[in-house]
Structures are given as C-alpha cells and as structure tokens.
Amino acid sequence: MNANEFSSIWVYLSTSPLLGLTLTLVAYIAAYTIYRKSRFNPLLNPVAISVALLILLLLATGTDYKDYFEGAQFVHFLLGPATVALAIPLYQQLGRLRTLLLPILSSVLAGVCVAAVSAVASAWLLGASPATLLSLAPKSVTAPVAMGIAERIGGLPSLTAVLVVTTGIIGAIVGFRVFTLLGIRNDSIKGIAMGVTSHGIGTARAFQISSEAGAFSGLSMALSAILSALLLPWLMTVPGLAL
Amino acid sequence: MELLIGITTLLVYQLAGESIVLLLGLPVPGPVVGMLLLFLTLLAKGRTGVHLEATANGLLSHLSLLFVPAGVGVLVHIDMIADEWIPITIALLLSTLLTLAVTAMVMKWTQHLTGGGTENDERQ
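^ inputs. structure came back:
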C-alpha cells in the first residue's frame, strides 16, 4: 500500500466514529501497559501518556479534534454514569463515613476552597485572562462536574477539561511525596486529600496504595464535586474576584 | 445481564438527575444529583446488589480512561495555553501542592480533636 492509498483510507476512516474510539482505547491500553511494566511509576501516568500519544498522532495525520471526538465521545460519555456510580463506594464506606464525618466534611470543605482560590488568585497575580481564571476555578473537580461548573460561571468547559486532567496528573505524581514530607501515614487521610485535589485520576492512584485509600478518595471526590457545584458559582462572585 | 442491569440503573439515575436539574433550575450538574439519588436509594434499601457493584467496579477501575478524550482537547486551546502557559503552570502546581497539604493537615487535626482517628493511628 503506498502513502497515497493510506492517506485516502485514513481520510475515509477519520470521518467515522470507529477510528476515534478505537484509537482512544488502543492508546490507553498501550499507556497502561507501559505504566504497569514500570511498576506504576507515577511519572508515567497512563492519562498523560495516552493523551500525548493521541495528540502526536492527530498532529502527524492532520486530523481535526472534532473528527477524533466523533468517536472518542463514546468514552467521554461514560463520565456521567461513572459519576453516578460513585454512590456505590460512598455507600460501602458508610460506617467509616459516620465515625469520621466531621474530619471528612471539614477537610473536604477546606480543600475545595483552597483549590479554587489558590489557583485563581495565583493565575490572576501572574496576569492570566478572565476566561482562563474562570476555567481554572473548578480544576480539582471531577471532569463532568467541573465542565458543568465552568459553563455556569462563564469559563470555557473544554479548557477546564484540560486543566482538570493536568491537575489530576500533577496530584497523582506528587501526592504521596507530599504526604511523606508532612508525615501523614493514615490511608484514610491520604485518600481524602487525593480525591479533593486530583479527583478521578488521584482516586485511580490511591487505589494502588490500598483499597481503603481508594474508597476514601472516591468519597472525597464525590463530596468535593457536590460542595464545589454549590460553592464555586458563589465563591467566584466574591468582590475583588469580580471578573 | 449483570452488566446490562447495572449500566441501565446508572443511566436511569443519571437521567433522573438531569431531569431534576432542568425542572428545578439547580446549580448542580445532573450526574451529581443522580449520584445523590442513588446513594439515598442504597441507604433506604440497605444493600448495593451484585449487578450495581460489578458495573461500578468495572467503570471506576479504569476511570482514568474516561479522561483521555477531554485531555486530547488541549489541541483546541493550544494557542491560549501557549500564550498563558506560565500563569497556568504555576497556578496548577502551586494550587495542587497547597490543596493536598491543607486537606491532609485539616483532616489530621480535626481527627485528633474529635478522637475519630485514634483507632486508625494505633493500627499504623
């Protein structure tokens, strides 16, 4: 097959959802295999690697993101049911949740406020544009909820999605080093902090440490999604941050 | 059948959540309301059931995959990110470190105050 034939086949296939969907799954499986072979080195985060592989491929073939998303949306769509599914680990941790209710609620509340305010304030000081600031505010919240919040407060949902994924990856990479520095040994605390900071990507990382850390991370990610959805639209209208 | 019932349950709750948000004009995304509804249902029923557990485990064990399409969206905003990459990078790094530290320390202190963490700390 010559290059011409290949490119005409690619052009034909890239208009069908099959290509985007298959590429997403193949890239993720490849990235996850690399991650597993590296014995879960946090620097080789599977989201970062698969995103990088796909971007290189789209750039190399001149494929539009829109055409890619035609297929990738089937994976993207599952974020909704996955958010609903968080009710299950939440319910399974009910006993722990009851005894730790006050510490969990106060730390998640503190985390939600610090995540939004510190990101927006530091970017504002460094001269970021209003659209970037509003898109940054929900960056620690799980993607479907964060995109909903961004839309509501006047940010760009698709930019927020990118910032959310980046925050997730940073948290997954640095999280457990921060806990070691702070002398945190308790898995429930590690899980709560990972979930608030780095949502689903942090939760995936926390599950590698222990199922307890993972469940608490899922719990705090769900709680922070609820609290952020309620608080952020209000927090972003606070005087001084009026954009 | 297990998976089919599980995923249908999740979709029904998501749909209910989206409908409630639209009807009442709530400031919360639909799937979050769906999650709350499902959580309340589980509380009332007192158990999760095998179908839901299997489906939720399947979906949540590869949660990272679901973020990939949105991550590739960086392509769309490449110009904006190129212009503002310094404030964006510093804000993300700083805020991530700060959020991790503050959340963990607040939980540690409040756990000591309320005595909720003693059983945990002894085990460690």
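Chain B touches chain A through 76 residues (CB under 8 Å). The helical segments of chain B are 2-24, 30-45, 50-61, 68-72, 78-83, 85-114, 118-123.
thumbs up if we can close this ticket
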